[in-house]
Amino acid sequence: MTTITQLRAFLVAGTVGSFTATAKELGLTQPTVSELVRKLEDEHELALFVRTGRKLVLTAAGEELFPWARRVVESADGADEALRALRGIEGGVASFGVLRNAPFYFLSDLAERFHQEHPGVRTRLVGQNSFEVAEAVRSGELEAGLVVLPVPDHDLDVKPLMRDEVLWASADPSRTACPMTMEAINEAPLILYDAYYGWNDPTRRQLAARAQVAGVRLEPMIEVENIDSALGLVSRGVGDTIVSKAVTRHSIFPANVQTVGFAEPIFDTIALITRQNATLSPVTAKLAIMATTMMLSPPS
């Protein structure tokens, strides 16, 4: 079978015109270079050089092989360079799933900061619902990601990082005067976000499980896709919603909306997920460390 080493020796010999010069360039002995080319010729039963005079001259077969050999060798060299870049965090692509509500967890500057530290790395940050991030990591579309638990965890390694309390939000002060109970939820129109994923959304699933135990059926009056849309409706008195505590610290949180915890507290648990038995590329591993650090150490 033809090897990269044989093709490299042939390519250099065809370029410099001598086995001696080839040996010097490749750091090999002249007999070793001659043997590499001879084995290549013997394998295909074709002469690749005319060995007369002081300079090697390509035969017709050699002329035909030369461009193919150059492509193979250049591709191999390119692969080596790419791997060296990855090892040194100088190139490659980092693919990472972030929380759809990433700005509330101080992750909005993640792409800029990572690019500043590693300008040669292409960064692919995908902000989706946690359910979809889990599916993307499981399928290999993403290498890793941050999610809110619970998510289906088969074929995934899950590393919980932090908890964030889920609060009840309302513009009606009487609705936040005391801790919210499951039985009291439906006394005002319920507004929920993440409409596309519905009850697959991890926070919603927790709420639904609590309501089921209490014998309460949750039926949102309005469902929207984004949390800021839900908060806009709440601020205008249309209904109530749920938010994580991180959201209440953000500038978009309406001044006239109050919050209160649940009588039995509910928490979003944020976790880092990767595929089981998979090794992260160096660039994605570095990005995961930065994202985790930014989330756990928010600016004061």
UniProtKB/TrEMBL annotation:
<dbReference type="Pfam" id="PF00126">
    <property type="entry name" value="HTH_1"/>
</dbReference>
<dbReference type="InterPro" id="IPR036388">
    <property type="entry name" value="WH-like_DNA-bd_sf"/>
</dbReference>
<dbReference type="InterPro" id="IPR005119">
    <property type="entry name" value="LysR_subst-bd"/>
</dbReference>
<dbReference type="InterPro" id="IPR000847">
    <property type="entry name" value="LysR_HTH_N"/>
</dbReference>
<feature type="domain" description="HTH lysR-type">
    <location>
        <begin position="1"/>
        <end position="59"/>
    </location>
</feature>
<dbReference type="GO" id="GO:0005829">
    <property type="term" value="C:cytosol"/>
</dbReference>
<keyword id="KW-0238">DNA-binding</keyword>
<dbReference type="InterPro" id="IPR050950">
    <property type="entry name" value="HTH-type_LysR_regulators"/>
</dbReference>
<dbReference type="InterPro" id="IPR036390">
    <property type="entry name" value="WH_DNA-bd_sf"/>
</dbReference>
<dbReference type="GO" id="GO:0003677">
    <property type="term" value="F:DNA binding"/>
</dbReference>
<comment type="similarity">
    <text>Belongs to the LysR transcriptional regulatory family.</text>
</comment>
<dbReference type="GO" id="GO:0003700">
    <property type="term" value="F:DNA-binding transcription factor activity"/>
</dbReference>
<protein>
    <submittedName>
        <fullName>LysR family transcriptional regulator</fullName>
    </submittedName>
</protein>
<keyword id="KW-0805">Transcription regulation</keyword>
<keyword id="KW-0804">Transcription</keyword>
<dbReference type="Pfam" id="PF03466">
    <property type="entry name" value="LysR_substrate"/>
</dbReference>
